[in-house]
Amino acid sequence: MLHRVRSAVAHLVSSGGPPGSGSSVLPTPASPNPIAHPVAPRSPPAGAERGTRASGGAVENRGSFSRPTFLQLSPRGLRRAEDHAGRVVQSPPDTGRRLPWRTGYAEVINAGKSRHNEDQACCEVVYVESRQARMGGPGKSISDQGNQGLYFHYWGLFDGHAGGGAAEMASRLLHRHIREQLRGLVEILQDPSPPPLCLPSTTEASVSLELSCPGGSQPCWPLQKEDEHMAREQRNQYAVGGCCALVAVYLLGKMYVANAGDSRAIIVRNGDIIPMSREFTPETERQRLQLLGFLKPELLGNEFTHLEFPRRVQPKELGQRMLYRDQSMTGWAYKKIELQDLRFPLVCGEGKKARVMATIGVTRGLGDHNLKVSSSTLPVKPFLSCFPEVQVYDLTQYEHCPDDVLILGTDGLWDVSSDKDVADTVDKVLSSFEPNDPSRYTALAQTLVLGARGISREQGWRLPNNKMGSGDDISVFVIPLGGAGSYT
Amino acid sequence: MLHRVRSAVAHLVSSGGPPGSGSSVLPTPASPNPIAHPVAPRSPPAGAERGTRASGGAVENRGSFSRPTFLQLSPRGLRRAEDHAGRVVQSPPDTGRRLPWRTGYAEVINAGKSRHNEDQACCEVVYVESRQARMGGPGKSISDQGNQGLYFHYWGLFDGHAGGGAAEMASRLLHRHIREQLRGLVEILQDPSPPPLCLPSTTEASVSLELSCPGGSQPCWPLQKEDEHMAREQRNQYAVGGCCALVAVYLLGKMYVANAGDSRAIIVRNGDIIPMSREFTPETERQRLQLLGFLKPELLGNEFTHLEFPRRVQPKELGQRMLYRDQSMTGWAYKKIELQDLRFPLVCGEGKKARVMATIGVTRGLGDHNLKVSSSTLPVKPFLSCFPEVQVYDLTQYEHCPDDVLILGTDGLWDVSSDKDVADTVDKVLSSFEPNDPSRYTALAQTLVLGARGISREQGWRLPNNKMGSGDDISVFVIPLGGAGSYT
């Protein structure tokens, strides 16, 4: 049963929450939400004045762009952050309020592959008021209810594609979805006894909120809610594109890391590397994608085959036998080539060039509801999943030192840096700072970003070994797991 | 590319073979098959005279039963082997031809749960003639063709349910399917250069064989072929029931272990345990089963829900919230109970009591084509898979000593013995024999079976610690990996 508590929380904070416990409608300013931690507005879109943004669920206009609030960028700073030629590494200013836990952060824009930096980031401490307390109405104080809420710490990296809208929307809203979903579990999480198998039915007010959930009785996890929210916006042509999501949530002694996409998280602890996520790409998810294509061939139209071949089949090879693999195979075997094998393979290519339906290189994330196969009306979305994989790390099981960190990075970091490279940099940078120097984690994040970007030479961005640096957007959180930081 | 060779072979010998490389019709006595290793006829059905059995693809009449040929049982011995009260452990006789590699084998019948011993076993050395050589016709000798065939060693355990027909059929025929599928790869396997991505189209004769394959162009792996063969027999009410299959194939320096069901294989090497299979049960395959039920709800009728709950939902709990999990979740969360949640869960129960559709406790294997949900016309088969998982062990990468063994056992062994128990017994028994004593592996198999069966007491079969012994059929192969045996 203890396992059930843990796993229920894992779903709540990342891949799932109690489906009947929240509203699909985000709290508006009119909602009774007297003590919820205020979610800071983001940096304004370039050219707009501070404070004119709509709050809550409002969606960025197309063409505008912004960077995380905690960077505290002025309009001029914002323009510099979007300079593809200089690629200046951005971090929160040394002055003023630091990120929770002294978290380090750094980012840099791509070398020109897209107009804006399509990565987005969020770091918040979020207060979850219990639903029971909340239902007492705005006239009653917490003490009247006798219910204490709880806090969670939240870090999110969102790597956008085909526009920055989805990543921006997710970075503004996902932690709110998590908060909403957690409300129904506040009492259960704080109760040391095992959670009940069955809970009494909720009151009228709560039920009516549930009824407003699209899909009615279907489970609505935070990422799923965010994805459905995005689907509604994308029907209106807002928040175009999609994004990968890598999220860490610290709650009651445990760190939950949820990943949907090709970002990556590792813990570096006493020099050891502990993987905290795995990537979801056409290569790693081939069998899931092929199974779906096999069970639902209508999703492939007449354009694709769910089989994979080591290279494109030629019409002249009809009747010959070629290596192939299907949804049930981890290896290859021969099959006789037939007419339908000439269709384009659902999954093709290797490494960074691997694609689903010749279109997209990641297989999990948010958005992409309007994404169509090139020169076709076939939607790609059914093959993309918004369900993350969650890993749980119990911080109470180990005494962490100030050099133990959780690293979150978008693929811009990992395309050119191995886990080992990153662990070496962690050691090198942190050992050059005093353990209680509050700037050490930001310095580490900057070094990691610089190390992946490289320096500008005639032939482009190059690493010290003269290999290509990453031309992608690069974003890194460095989250200290022990030492000076206090986790309250 | 080397990986492709390995994996192609893995498919060929166990989960797959080149789909266009074989006939779905097994060779009949009239087929030109001049040098194929003769497959010994099995022990006769009880009451029948030796030699009256039809050979090749003929199927046991219902009600008859047999034990593996290599046990060399007389009609009287056969009756003793089926005695539920005495449960005498059976092994090949000490006199006469030993099993290849000095393989040890022992079995015992169940304590009364079914009339016959529904486990079956097979151990063979099989010669694979290349297709090219074969197509030269029976008039030409091998040397005329210049093609050498190859041998593989084969061990199979088949744990039947709902009758012994499927297990018996599989034990007689599966290695022949593997042989047929391997024919097309003989030259490629013997050629040290990488296999070609594309092979020339096969000749007329071979193509016509392929056309006789049910499903036409669909891949036909050996287990799949066996399963399709069984489907045809089961339509005629022969070979009722189903069976788990655990198969080891030694070919060109590598051991391929393929498992579909809840039998288990481990290697014990220098005291270390190397798992060579994992079990496929409603618990381990919950997410695969739930995904299929979610994508193809018509397979559930109006009788089942693809969701899992920790216990059966009561009508009075409608509107309350209960812990549950679906195909995307590894943990549990709460959902509001609705009318359709009152349906019986597709997967329910724990441990040995876990069931798919309240009917069957294993999720992979052969047969079960006629299996229906109790008091319903709903077929269970779509949820059962005949695809095994294959593990490959390279025997050339380690110098094995005579005490290093591969253990194959049906669940009767593993229900009461842990991997560690078995490894301890391996150490204890083998160290009490000379390394070159040919009877040591049979003695080990007998000790393992006896240790799982226990001894008969007033309260039933009991282990030395007074826990219940296994009342199931128990079958064990002990395959030595080094030492005196030669692998030719």
UniProtKB/TrEMBL annotation, chains A, B:
<dbReference type="Pfam" id="PF00481">
    <property type="entry name" value="PP2C"/>
</dbReference>
<dbReference type="InterPro" id="IPR015655">
    <property type="entry name" value="PP2C"/>
</dbReference>
<dbReference type="GO" id="GO:0004741">
    <property type="term" value="F:[pyruvate dehydrogenase (acetyl-transferring)]-phosphatase activity"/>
</dbReference>
<protein>
    <submittedName>
        <fullName>Protein phosphatase 1J isoform X2</fullName>
    </submittedName>
</protein>
<dbReference type="InterPro" id="IPR001932">
    <property type="entry name" value="PPM-type_phosphatase-like_dom"/>
</dbReference>
<feature type="region of interest" description="Disordered">
    <location>
        <begin position="1"/>
        <end position="100"/>
    </location>
</feature>
<feature type="compositionally biased region" description="Polar residues">
    <location>
        <begin position="63"/>
        <end position="72"/>
    </location>
</feature>
<dbReference type="InterPro" id="IPR036457">
    <property type="entry name" value="PPM-type-like_dom_sf"/>
</dbReference>
<feature type="domain" description="PPM-type phosphatase">
    <location>
        <begin position="102"/>
        <end position="481"/>
    </location>
</feature>
<dbReference type="GO" id="GO:0005739">
    <property type="term" value="C:mitochondrion"/>
</dbReference>
